Amino acid sequence: MNKRVFVGVMVGAIAVALAAGGLLASNMGFKLNYGLKAADGGVTSKTGTNTLGLPFNRQTGIATSKNLMDDIGFASVASVQKFVAASDTLQTYTGRKGSPGADFTLESGLGYYVKMTGNVDYIVVGSHDPSLSVTLSAADGGVTSKTGTNFFAYPYHSTAGTSKQLMDDIGFASVASVQKFVAASDTLQTYTGRKGSPGADFA
């Protein structure tokens, strides 16, 4: 059976936001004060790379990587990157003249890397779309996913509080692992849930 590797962008987002006092949820939508950090030598971010999951219904006017950079604050953002599952590569947009990479359309349910040159408390606004089904693809040789890795924007109001609970929600037998990006070291923390495999369940 093909299994999927799942990279969760906002795993634990509700707990983190509540601790910071920044999440307001209602039937209307969400408003979250999300700290995007520049490189600080590894205290909070090694290279200024942050993960960002947007609500399935983004606020009006945030449709492309350029729109997102402008909304965060263009001068404080070095790049926005999208994971391309078919090739296991990153598509990069910098918005600077002479830099490669065209502006790309943002997609609901996908996570993004945002590399910062300055610290910004970014106000994320939007709402959930309960009718949106996000397909998590297993490895298929590169048609839709080269290795079965998916970069999924975990909905803000989801109830799974740990990587194990998330695997169970998706369907444990179909998930090879859940990974969380650790900005302080630019590494991935991995949980497989299998006996003898390294990596503890994480929040």
In short:
This protein is mainly beta and 203 residues long. The protein is 12% helix and 32% strand. The chain has helices spanning 13-20, 65-72, 163-170, and strands at residues 4-8, 24-25, 30-36, 49-53, 57-58, 77-84, 89-93, 111-116, 120-127, 149-152, 175-182, 187-191.
Which terms summarize this structure?
four-stranded mixed β-sheet, 203 residues, four-stranded antiparallel β-sheet, 32% strand
**Regions with little confidence, pLDDT below 50 for 5+ residues:** 10-27
For the biggest sheet, the summary is: 4 strands, mixed
- List the total number of helices: 3
What structural class do the secondary elements suggest?
mainly beta
Order of helices and strands: EHEEEEHEEEEEHEE
Note the beta-strand portion. 25-35%
What's the average pLDDT?
Answer: 87
CA radius of gyration is 17 Å
Determine the fraction of residues in helical runs and give it as a percent range.
10-25%
Strand order of the largest sheet: 10-1-11-12
How many β strands by DSSP? 12
Distance from first to last alpha carbon:
27 Å
Global morphology: globular
Fold blueprint:
Blueprint: E1 4-8, H1 13-20, E2 24-25, E3 30-36, E4 49-53, E5 57-58, H2 65-72, E6 77-84, E7 89-93, E8 111-116, E9 120-127, E10 149-152, H3 163-170, E11 175-182, E12 187-191
Parallel strand pairs: 1-10, 1-11
Antiparallel strand pairs: 2-3, 3-9, 4-8, 5-9, 6-7, 6-8, 11-12
